[in-house]
Specification:
The complex is a heterotrimer of chains A (390), B (108) and C (370).
Chain A (H helix, E strand, L loop, with lengths): L3 E6 L5 E2 L3 E6 L5 H11 L3 E3 L10 H16 L3 E8 L7 H9 L4 E6 H4 L2 H19 L5 E4 L4 E6 L6 H18 L3 E4 L9 H6 L4 H20 L11 H5 L5 H9 L7 E5 L10 E5 L5 H10 L4 E5 L13 E5 L2 H6 L6 E2 L9 H16 L5 H4 L12 H4 L1
Parallel strand pairs in A: 3-4, 3-5, 5-6, 8-9, 8-12, 9-11, 10-11, 12-13, 13-14
Antiparallel strand pairs in A: 1-2, 1-7
Helix pairs in contact in A: 1-5, 2-3, 2-11, 6-10, 6-13
Chain B lengths: L17 E2 L7 E4 L8 E3 L4 E3 L9 E3 L8 E4 L2 E6 L8 E2 L4 E2 L12
Antiparallel strand pairs in B: 1-2, 2-5, 3-4, 5-8, 6-7, 7-9
Chain C lengths: L24 E6 L5 H9 L4 E3 L10 H15 L4 E8 L7 H10 L4 E5 H4 L2 H14 L18 E6 L4 H20 L3 E4 L3 H4 L13 H12 L8 H8 L2 H5 L9 E3 L10 E5 L5 H11 L3 E5 L13 E5 L2 H6 L6 E2 L5 H12 L5 H5 L14
Parallel strand pairs in C: 1-2, 1-3, 3-4, 5-6, 5-9, 6-8, 7-8, 9-10, 10-11
Helix pairs in contact in C: 1-5, 2-3, 2-11, 6-13
The chains are: A alpha/beta (390), B mainly beta (108), C alpha/beta (370).
């Protein structure tokens, strides 16, 4: 029995669960211009503001270009307006061309060509309206759930995360993968202590080796800042809460990805494949940057577990918040989508996992998440720092 | 004191007090605080609690020998550094990490 | 998680801020990216508040984490800020309670709250507005806007070193530098590429106190700044006479670390920022700038939420293309025009950036996100 949802079929055969016009600034210098264009246009326009310079060194710039392109390609965007200053080293044409390969309409606007802020706001507004006219008439079509790529994140973790919300979301990921979809989790620092288990679950030696290599790199990055990431975990607060070893903490974190074999590990913002099973992505643990990476990789939906009550969303993809802490669910009900705390009272993992899976389908069909209702759309891109490049 | 609601002298309804994440686990996680002497009978295990176990802390659900793996999520989370009886609290005092502080074995 | 907001006690504030501002706003200060939307919405509901949203405060380690925290505290102490509402999420590393405590210790009127403490984003917005209205701030616009340039702390940042910047715009700004210092004011100059690209040529441009400090930062950055980035290339390709001309007749008295305040003594300070203007402006505001002069041959239009930013360009093409975004052009306007404009701005006249209202608030990083 196949599971369907109603999605927007794009020219490149991907499917969106939303039908927005993206407004993407190329550099920090025009982020506020992009945000203003989108705010003035209306809720169909979603800006992706960030704080990355237009003149990074090449090695760092490649990641930024990949992410901006991937964000534009995400099937939740039906059309895209790119905003540039005009003098950035970032290859704006390459980004525009990359996005246009999906077949969606792309416009590029430059502050210098338009003649400054005001004319850019005026023309940007006009373009966004025109782009929206092109896509507003599209209707959802019934498609199979294997069109979905779901990104999974955890943030604001507490003692309930590893025993309730994460395993429950893992159960939902297993169901998604069994139905032919893709699930992706990331946050490489949280693999530390359990990387050998991830390696063991990999489908090939080369994937296993890459996982270990990425974990090693993240540990060394911590070392750059004088921090022993391995030795510093679990923190005193974690230990108070019941976590004994780093293995236990990381196993609790990776349980959010479920139990399936690991097909691959990709780089920050690299494209994720449809029907790809369980895929890891190498990202920092920093929530907002980590979510953005998966969305740039093509995830149309994010499932985000939080014990303490993270409230962040994303402008491109709906973020479903799952908490296993009953106090958090009660206190912050307007920012949470799923209460997984039933597990603490004996409800089965399978039962809560099924609820989460059903919620994924509902949200894919167009039901808004609490973050979407409140317009919570945080966005940040990871920047490769100068001391990492040495 | 034993857990479970007695509806009548002949019935006994179990509540889940200890969460066990995998069949291979030798520790469970307390879903509420347990006191010394509590007898916990569940479908998946039966123990007599030997010490106070706080919410989300671990309790041994089998006897564990020094040097054995502590298993949770079906995987080793550490090594027992002393013998541990079923019903004892399992934490930093009797469970050592095997992958902390850089002295880890390279395993693929 | 935070419960009580930090109360303002009626006692004489410690004498940390002796200077008054030229703008008077409440600053709604998110301690972390996760609370920035709430901060924006609180500020939007108030007549006299600005928000300083940024992308950090979480997953930062060591010196990188400290820099974000120090910067946010210093922003709260800027003379243009009349009071602060600190907004946190609750579980982040850069704790809103700590920032609020440091501000309170310095005598700044402050309130604090967190999304998790209050219990939700909508609730936090409502409570944040209430707390802002509790702040008893005086209208502390210095001298009702009639300022002598010797009263000012002027921040200066050039985001490039193109020919028009070095041969036209900076020489014009240099005249102002001389005037401000001559009248007993303060110049806060950012942009370390200038020094790193000319490491053997600045010993006579620094005081004996400042020289070893600048030498230290040059030694650190010369292996870190990639040679290929545009602004560094431009700095290298210029002569040392051109690159240091902006200092005028003056020597650098002292180096101020990013995110730290300059002392309340007049002089010429070098603030250790990059030339990435959005981050550099924040460094200058942390140091205590009342206003910023941004020299740009690209026409980067963004302002800063806390201080007025004046755009100066020597690039005729840019000026003709984007004249509404530029305050002073250096090829047919004069230093006297710039100084007159500054007087006007102190008296309430809006800069071009204030007119369009688009601002950026970014903090320089010294390490990777974890």
């Amino acid at each position: 029995m196949s599971i369907n949802f109603g999605g927007y079929r794009r020219p490149d055969d991907t499917v969106g669960v939303r039908n927005h016009v993206g407004v993407i600034p190329v550099s920090v210098s025009v982020s506020s211009v992009a945000s203003k264009i989108a705010d003035d246009a209306g809720s169909f326009a979603k800006a992706t503001p960030h704080q990355i310079s237009g003149n990074q060194p090449k090695a760092a710039r490649q990641q930024t270009e990949r992410v901006l392109t991937g964000i534009g390609k995400n099937p939740n965007f039906g059309a895209v307006l790119i905003v540039s200053l005009g003098t950035e080293a970032v290859d704006v044409q390459k980004i525009g061309g990359g996005i246009a390969q999906t077949g969606k309409a792309v416009e590029i606007i430059s502050l210098i060509d338009e003649g400054g802020t005001k004319p850019t706001l005026v023309r940007g507004s006009k373009l966004v309206g025109e782009l929206n006219e092109e896509i507003a008439g599209l209707t959802r079509q019934q498609v199979d759930i294997q069109e979905l790529i779901v990104g999974v994140e955890c943030g604001g973790s507490d003692a309930t995360s590893g025993i309730a919300a994460n395993p429950a979301v893992g159960n939902a990921c297993d169901r998604l993968i069994e139905s032919g979809g893709t699930a992706c989790f990331s946050e490489t620092p949280e693999f530390i202590g359990a990387e050998h288990i991830l390696a063991k679950r990999s489908v090939s030696q080369s994937v296993a080796n890459r996982i270990l290599e990425k974990v090693d790199q993240r540990e060394r990055m911590g070392g750059l800042m004088g921090v022993d990431l391995r030795g510093a975990q679990p923190t005193p607060g974690n230990q108070e809460g019941g976590l004994t070893t780093i293995e236990e903490k990381s196993l609790g974190a990776i349980s959010k990805g479920g139990t399936k074999p690991i097909e691959d590990i990709v780089d920050y913002g690299e494209q994720l494949s449809k029907g790809g099973g369980l895929i890891l992505m190498d990202t920092p643990g920093y929530d907002v940057e980590s979510v953005v990476a998966k969305v740039a990789g093509g995830a149309q939906i994010i499932v985000f577990t939080t014990g303490r009550g993270s409230t962040t969303g994303n402008p491109v993809a709906p973020v479903i918040k799952v908490t296993g802490n009953p106090q958090t669910y009660e206190k912050m009900a307007n920012n949470m989508d799923i209460d997984a705390s039933g597990i603490l009272k004996g409800e089965s993992l399978s039962s809560v996992g099924e609820q989460i899976f059903n919620k994924i389908v509902q949200i894919s069909n167009g039901m808004p998440t609490e973050a979407e209702r409140r317009g919570l759309e945080e966005f940040a891109i990871n920047e490769i720092q100068q001391n990492e490049l040495r | 004191m034993s857990f479970g609601k007695r509806t009548s002298m002949s019935e006994y309804i179990q509540e889940q007090i200890i969460l066990i994440l995998s069949n291979h686990d030798n520790v469970g996680t307390a879903l509420r605080e347990c006191k010394t002497g509590d007898q916990i009978d569940q479908q998946d295990m039966s123990i007599r609690v030997k010490q106070k176990i706080r919410f989300a802390h671990k309790v041994a659900i089998k006897d564990i020998t020094a040097g054995d793996s502590i298993i949770k999520y079906g995987e080793e989370i550490g090594i027992a550094n002393q013998d541990i009886e079923s019903g004892e609290w399992v934490h930093v005092h009797n469970c050592d990490s095997n992958r902390g502080r850089g002295d880890l074995e390279a395993e693929t | 998680m935070s419960d009580d907001s930090v109360q303002h006690r009626s006692q004489t504030p410690q004498n940390i801020r002796t200077s008054e501002g030229i703008r008077g706003n409440i600053c709604v200060l998110p301690s972390v990216i996760c609370s920035h939307i709430v901060a924006d919405r609180i500020a939007a509901e108030l007549a006299n508040a600005v928000s300083v949203p940024h992308d950090h405060g979480c997953a930062q380690l060591g010196a990188d984490n400290d820099q974000t925290k120090n910067t946010l505290v210093s922003i709260g102490k800027n003379p243009n800020v009349q009071g602060v509402v600190v907004v946190g999420l609750g579980c982040e590393e850069v704790q809103s309670t700590e920032i609020a405590q440091e501000l309170e210790n310095s005598g700044i009127p402050v309130r604090e709250l967190s999304i998790q403490g209050v219990g939700g984003t909508a609730e936090c917005i409502t409570e944040g507005v209430n707390l802002a209205n509790e702040l008893k701030t005086e209208n502390k616009i210095a001298h009702n806007g009639k300022i002598d340039i010797g009263d000012l702390k002027v921040g200066i940042i050039s985001s490039d070193f193109t020919e028009s910047t070095l041969t036209k715009a900076e020489p014009l700004v240099m005249k102002l530098v001389n005037r401000v210092i001559g009248h007993g004011g303060t110049i806060l100059l950012g942009g370390r590429e200038r020094f790193v690209a000319h490491e053997n040529d600045f010993s006579d441009r620094c005081s004996s106190d400042a020289l070893p400090e600048i030498q230290k930062l040059v030694d650190r950055y010369k292996t870190e700044i990639p040679q290929e980035i545009r602004v560094f290339r431009e700095a290298t390709e210029s002569s040392s006479e051109e690159i240091f001309k902006i200092l005028g007749k003056n020597k650098i008295d002292q180096v101020i670390r990013y995110g730290h305040q300059a002392p309340d003594q007049p002089g010429l300070y070098f603030v250790d920022t990059s030339s990435r203007v959005e981050e550099a402006m924040t460094g200058l505001v942390s140091a205590g700038a009342h206003l910023i002069i941004h020299v740009t041959s690209d026409g980067i239009p963004t302002g800063h939420p806390v201080v007025p930013v004046l755009k100066v360009t020597g690039n005729r093409t840019i000026y003709e293309a984007m004249s509404e975004d530029i305050d002073v052009n250096a090829y047919n306007q004069t230093p006297a025009d710039l100084e007159k404009l500054i007087h006007g701005v102190c008296g309430g006249k809006l800069t071009r950036a204030e007119e369009h209202g688009l601002v950026s608030f970014a903090i320089e990083r010294v390490g990777p996100s974890m």
